[in-house]
Queue: 2 jobs
Job 1
Amino acid sequence: MVGAVSSLAAVTLFYSCAVNKTANLASGDAAGKVYVPPGSYDTYYAFLSGGYNGQIGVYGLPSGRLLKFVSVFSQNPETGWGYNEESKPMLQTTYGFMPWDDSHHPELSQTDGVPDGRWLFINGNNTPRVARVDLTTFETTEILQIPNSAGGHASPFTTPNTKYIVSATRFSVPIPNNDVAIESYKKNFKGTLSFITADQPGKMDIAFQILLPGFNYDLGHAGKGPSDGWFFFTSYNSEQANEKLELNASQNDKDFIAAVNYRQAEQCIAEGKARTAPADYFHNVMDEKSHQARSERKSTVKMLDPSSCPGMVYYLPTPKSPHGVDIDPSGEYIVAGGKLATVIPVHSFSKLQKAIADKQFDGEVEGIPVLKYSATIAGEVQKPGLGPLHTEFDGKGNAYTSMFISSEIVKWKLGTWEVLDRMPVYYSVGHLMIPGGDSKKPWGQYALSLNKITKDRYLPTGPELAQSAQLIDISGDKMKMLLDFPTIGEPHYAQALPAELIKDKQLKYYKLSENTNAGVVRAEREGGISRQGKRVDIKMAAIRSHFAPDNLEGVQVGDTVYFHVTNIEQDWDIVHGFAVLGAENSELIVAPGATRTLKWIPKATGVYPFYCTDFCSALHQEMQGYVRVSPAGSNTPLIANISKKAAAQIAKSEKEGHEQHAPAGGGR
Ligand code: RUQ
Ligand code: CUA
């Protein structure tokens, strides 16, 4: 069947342009269904990964309006993320400081199998990592690197109570990684599955890893209900090819879903069956109070070999190079999206249990039992379309599968496997997303199609276009196209939840009284300048509409200057920025109550203005100051001026005999 395979593979090279002109499929009342009048709120928050920009876009649904861009794995000059001193440790890895990554799959934390609005997780794909975003601040608060892994793609899907999130290696590599011939792939290359503790903020860690044969592990989902305690991962390249995978990894009729009984894994660990394996990875945490991130480097993990823990892993043969694996809300059905398959195969969890009990095996791979396809399959959706990738559910007994090659979303019925409806999408849909659509209780109502190719959907903008998302009403029998909107980066996957779950829990400002940053000032009079050798620290308050101090002298060429800017406002959405002429990194953006630090190395003498970059008030343009840079070794004294009012406060408290941090250099 090599001929059929390669012709099918050839089809995948060309996304479908079956309908290649701009089509308007929106029905008459579509506009009313997506119109959110000025001053009104959207009903859902949607979190779309930024793909190759490494971040997360937050959109309102049904309007498609962009609400926020959350910095996660990439430096962002708009916010100073990864440029300011506080956040730099967040991007630290064993490969060094990592200014970029590719993020694919946002995943909401869950309680009892339902998104709960506490956190959003997302994977770093290139340098395998997982991140936690706090949904009261929309800030990244924690990043954990995944050791013994390459390509953290099957990640960070959660178990029903967020006990674990997972990461599986897309690329098998020598473990531990070392210098071997690539030719020795079959002998030396392995895959790992990582289970990561996730329910305690600031304490993510690798609970354990499972060493698997050297396939490519692609995606995963946890069981729920009856299948709670199991995790399912797709794999392709069961051929274990290491060159021209396009052809050589498409030979076998079936690849595998790895069904992992993680309670069994826990049991084996309790029985001492895990070994301590070398590992090298970073855990980075943003401290809530100081707003300063810290890194810790770790050196071992618990590693489980399937051979030493029988009953932990089984392989389910699945056609053909499966990509997505999605568990229906009841927890009974395991749906695979075989990129090159002509059907959508659905395994049954209860049949899987029976097949294990009855030992319905079809051999084994490296000690892992392979179950008989006929023993676990519940049904196959016939003629679904071409290139099934991902499936989500509406909670009403229906499944929706994205078809990459035939560019459509196909609705089908769980249990009867009949196709009920089709909606063409533009063009080449990857993931689709239904709010709660991978959970126990989907909210249904909408499906979002996340399309890879945009072509003629929007006004053209040169050779590269924004990605296109399409919102579809799935509340009725037939799908209705409602809206196209462009997105930033390439959203692979997305998650969404009803706005009321989180909108009233938003932090409005950080409490200044709780700020423990080393550079904090809680009042204007605490600002100042100090020197230790060639290091100069400037502590500065920002408040509408000035910096205190705003004139600084005594800096010399050859110094390294740290501007510690505290926004001392205690008011929602009053943000100040800070930029200084010649700064080579970025600006600072400082949330009310927070401190951010900019490192600056002046290279020449002169006077350098600085200013607020965020238009904060009518006198924002007045929010500025100067820093004088003298030659190295000059005797210009350290001077930090402050306002008359602040000076008067200092004088008053000095008279009262209170200890006081006078501005270094004594002010004037
Ligand atoms: S994967 S579609 Cu990460 Cu499907 Cu992108
Ligand atoms: Cu502060 Cu503009």
Job 2
Amino acid sequence: MKYFTTVNDIYDATRLVKDALELKANPYSNSSLGKNKTLGLIFFNSSLRTRLSTQKAALNLGMHVIVMNIGTEGWALEYEDGSIMNGSSVEHIKDAAAVIGLYCDIIAVRCFPTLTNKQEDYSEKVLLQFMKYSKKPIISLESATLHPLQSLADIMTIEEYKKVENPKIVLTWAPHIKPLPQVVANSFSEWVLKSNYELIITHPKGYELCEDYIKGAKIEYDQQTALANADFVYVKNWSSYYDYGKVLDGNQEWLLNNQKMLVTNSAKVMHCLPVRRNLELSDELLDGENSLVLHQAENRIYAAQTVLKIMLETN
Ligand code: AN0
Ligand code: CP
């Protein structure tokens, strides 16, 4: 596997989740596999879980890790091919990615969308240029459209906590004050669907997601109807895809609480974190016995370790 940027980069989602859970049971079984190999973690945006869990995953495999917050510490990068660089950008991504490729055996990149130019964001221009110019295996640490390590950890968590073979999984939109990417929702949807689970997505009108990631999901605009008999409720805010990057007025009533969850099948509550408490999700649910948020965060280590292991074995 040279790239891990979407569920479509892997041979079999169900198999990968099984492998990841096996690795979790025996995390030090490959502690020399990464000897003398260097992982580069390149961050254009902030992170807590992704940075620390991927670093720990690499250390469990005996790799070296180098980290750069390129968004705040690096030279301002140029992305347009053939441009005359007489503006504010100092270095072309062609050169930066090629140099990073010389220092690393595997490169992992976090590059959020701008949320101002849909076409540019959804073309994944940063990630694709890293693939093209670094010539090294690339892992997405959340790109402009997808967050595959988060989704792998999420599906692992569902496998661990499901009580029936085919649980009812609901993805619900939640309020926020800032425009957030559609990324986590896109990614969770494509992984759930690829894992052959049914998915119900509920959101206010105007927050429809890009069709490419949700084919096969059911859309239900009434949150309570969607939640009926749910086994897992995945909570996430995202900004509008069609009115690109906008936060639409209202919808504060979409905040979930214990009362609204009464119609579910004592559903487990999921969120990728970071979460704004009592804006996106209430304290009572986050701190309640059905919350899986810390289990999801823990599984990020083994999701990353599984992907790194496969890359070390196949490159
Ligand atoms: C990011 C998002 O919603 O995509 C990262 C989530 C893992 N969240 C924020 O920017 C708050
Ligand atoms: N869930 C997640 O990716 O968290 P960070 O943004 O803190 O890495």
